[in-house]
Amino acid sequence: MSEKIAVLGAGSWGSILANLLDENGHDVSLWSYKQDQVDELNQHHTNTHYIKDFTYSETLVAYSDLKAALKDATTVLFVVPTKAVRSVASQTKRALAELHTKPALIHASKGIEQDTYKRVSEILAEEIPAESRQSITVLSGPSHAEDVAKKDITLVTAASTDLSAAEHVQKLFMNRYFRVYTNTDVIGVEIAAALKNIIALGTGALHGLGYGDNAKAALMTRGLAEISRLGASFGANPLTFIGLAGVGDIIVTGTSHNSRNWRAGDELGKGQSLEEVIDTMGMVIEGVATTKSAYELAKQRGVDMPITTAIYQVLYEGKDIREAISDLMQREGRSEF
Ligand SMILES: NC(=O)c1ccc[n+]([C@@H]2O[C@H](COP(=O)([O-])OP(=O)(O)OC[C@H]3O[C@@H](n4cnc5c(N)ncnc54)[C@H](O)[C@@H]3O)[C@@H](O)[C@H]2O)c1
Ligand SMILES: O=P(O)(O)OC[C@H](O)CO
Questions:
Q1: Where are the active-site residues found (predicted)?
Q2: Does 274 fall in a domain?
Q3: 140 neighbors 151 (Cβ within 8 angstroms)
Q4: Does residue 50 share a domain with residue 31?
């Protein structure tokens, strides 16, 4: 059944998901806080800074006025960088109160908030209380916008503690190239989604330094092991980490030139400073902030996360990458499980 859906955030992922929902027959409004981007989308049906050589559906309408974008929406999809979720959610709550609507919420952001260590669904639940909304679902998995733009086969997971909400999201998004599974483990899916970005920074750095496939496979595997340990400390389902949001997303982000996290790591490995890498990317590199959150969270919870710690030391304490790798390799031998 066709729905009115507001998509908040018109970067690579928000704009491509909005286009997919439009193609699936929904009435979609796409919000961006940048007027020039809204004008480009409405006049030329392009979003050149984020996705090159792609023409968006003519029926997809962009707005810079949040309340206008949210009008009559029965579902709201948040796709802004994690650091912007709280402020966009708080503006959304005010607009929904004026509109007297109570939509279902979905988010597709992958990060852990700095200082609070909140997952994105927790931020949404705090800023938009239950009386102002329906359920919250997270959409996650191995999914670069560039591949979805090409209608390349993509499989993701929709996770909500309310299975019927996840099934609803599954129906909204599924089509011949985009397949959605359901999951009720919101904690596991959000932790896996956020922390795989740290590992992608690492595999990118290995690539930039000239290391081979063995090293990258090792980092992804042991990275997933420590992500699973952190997830387990919050009661996540261990199976989630061998699913799409876990191993699936580590593979795609940890090996792909499309990944901003991987590319950032590659540039770091080649000797650029973190500031230079952030300045030239021009898009969000979620792994940078999430490395700090995950490092502090692991310390707080007493979870052993040596790879996250090493990447934190490189990004935030100026440790040389080769020295960080050498220190990881010289840790005392231990049992794999
Ligand atoms: N790009 C992908 O392929 C992809 C896939 C899956 C998940 N994600 C996740 O989706 C989220 C968004 O990523 P993206 O790739 O679309 O990012 P992006 O950098 O391409 O764009 C982010 C968008 O958010 C907007 N924005 C930034 N700060 C804002 C603020 N304070 N208030 C309002 N809007 C703001 C920007 O203008 C931009 O339009 C991230 O958490 C990312 O991890 C991205
Ligand atoms: O480009 P990245 O590194 O933000 O990764 C995008 C998606 O999370 C891949 O699943």
A1: 196 (proton acceptor)
A2: yes
A3: no
A4: yes
